[in-house]
Structures are given as structure tokens and as C-alpha cells.
Design brief:
Blueprint: H1 2-9, H2 14-18, H3 23-32, H4 36-73, H5 85-91, H6 102-105, H7 110-129, H8 148-157, H9 172-187, H10 195-200, H11 206-222
Helix pairs in contact: 3-4, 5-7, 8-9
């Protein structure tokens, strides 16, 4: 009986953990695990599972784009470009093109509008993270390089998810993983940024960060945590 109890208390092997394909199960096991090696294996399994899901989404997205491309080439009408909640919030409802609207035909007409949205989103990030020590957002690149800004932004909307004051800007990997995992779990925001890529770069690509923050904003809007302007 004592031998059976000892076997039952043994931590799961790396093969057992790798075979689990349920993110919720892995998260629950991670919450309960106290052994360092077991937690390390569980975090690695979570990263691999999220990567697999991300790769599948990218593959599915590529397939849909190919299908749409084939439809357009056969003379089908092109789909309308969706307007994101953040564009609706910052710029109001989209204008309907008309024969007298020369701004729609001009390739440079959309540039100021896009620039305004980017600045508005940057100002929003700055305002939401302003109370947080160690965060100074000036751009979508170097200001996010240690992961602390991501954590601060996520913590602003989910303050019970983790203890912000214990974070260390030198632990870049932990900060990125904490922010992206929490955002995905609580805001249903897909982890569009790859932690390994971020660690390889001294400063992240601003376009990638900008895209991720837009998606996080959209998810917050869907959950009713951010209010957008109503159409008039």
C-alpha cells in the first residue's frame, strides 16, 4: 500500500505532460504544481501547445486567403475591408465612397487617418499604463522590449491575475509569457507575438507590437471592458 501511494504521488513524466492537448488542464496542473522541474515541463508544454494553435490559425488564415484570391480571380466581388473597433472608436463610422469624393481615389488620403489611429492607440496605452512604475511608453518598439509594458497594460484590466509589483524587467521571457498567457486566457486575445522572436531582438518590430495591441484592444471591446463611440 505504501508503495502504491508513493507511485501515485510521483509527478507526471515529460511524455505524460506532452501528451496533454488541453490548455485548461495544463493551466490547472501548473497552478497545483510545486516541484520546479514539473512546473518547467508544464510551462514548456503550454508554450508548445500555444505555438501549435498559432501555427494552425496561420495555416487556416492562409487557406482562407487563397480561397478568397481564387474567388476574386474568377470575377467575384472582393470582400469589404472590415473596420476594427479601434478605428470606429477613434475615427467614427467609415465614409461611403462617391464619384465626387476624390479623397477615396487618392492613394495618400488614407495615410493621415492611419497615422492618427496609431497615435491614438499609443496615447491610449500611455494613459492606461501611466500609474505603473517602470513603464514609460514612447513608441511601439523599444518601450515594450522588456515585457513590463505588456504586463502593465494587461494588469490594468485584470488586476487580480498576477502581482505586478513582483515583476523584474530583467526577466524578459517570464514577462512576455505572463502578459500573453493572461491576455489569451482572460481576454481571449490570441498570442500573435512569438516570445522566442522577441528575445532574439533588442527591440521588437513596431508593426508586430502595434498589431498585437490592436487585437488586445478589440478583444477588450468585445468583452465590454473598453467603450467605443457610437455611430451617429
Amino acid at each position: 500500500m505504501e508503495a502504491d501511494a508513493a507511485v501515485a504521488s510521483d509527478p507526471p513524466s515529460s511524455q505524460d505532460i506532452a501528451a496533454i492537448q488541453d490548455e485548461d488542464v495544463l493551466n490547472k496542473m501548473l497552478d497545483k504544481a510545486v516541484d520546479f522541474e514539473e512546473r518547467k515541463m508544464l510551462r514548456a508544454a503550454l508554450r508548445e501547445l500555444l505555438k501549435t494553435k498559432r501555427d494552425k490559425r496561420e495555416k487556416d488564415r492562409g487557406s482562407r486567403q487563397e480561397d478568397m484570391k481564387g474567388l476574386n480571380q474568377r470575377g467575384q466581388p472582393k470582400p469589404k475591408t472590415p473596420v476594427s473597433p479601434i478605428q470606429m472608436s477613434f475615427n467614427g463610422p467609415p465614409k461611403t465612397a462617391s464619384s465626387s469624393d476624390t479623397s477615396v481615389k487618392s492613394p495618400t488620403a488614407a495615410a493621415p487617418n492611419t497615422k492618427n489611429v496609431k497615435q491614438m492607440l499609443l496615447d491610449w496605452c500611455r494613459a492606461k499604463t501611466e500609474p505603473y512604475e517602470g513603464v514609460t511608453i514612447k513608441n511601439f518598439s523599444s518601450s515594450w522590449s522588456d515585457g513590463i509594458a505588456f504586463c502593465a497594460l494587461v494588469h490594468r484590466f485584470f488586476p487580480d491575475a498576477f502581482e505586478y509589483s513582483t515583476l523584474n524587467p530583467n526577466n524578459r521571457r517570464d514577462n512576455f509569457e505572463l502578459a500573453f498567457t493572461t491576455a489569451e486566457k482572460l481576454a481571449n486575445c490570441p498570442p500573435l507575438l512569438d516570445v522566442e522572436d522577441l528575445l532574439r531582438m533588442a527591440e521588437p518590430d513596431w508593426k508586430c507590437v502595434y498589431t498585437y495591441i490592436q487585437e488586445f484592444y478589440r478583444c477588450l471591446v468585445e468583452k465590454g471592458l473598453v467603450k467605443t463611440k457610437k455611430r451617429t
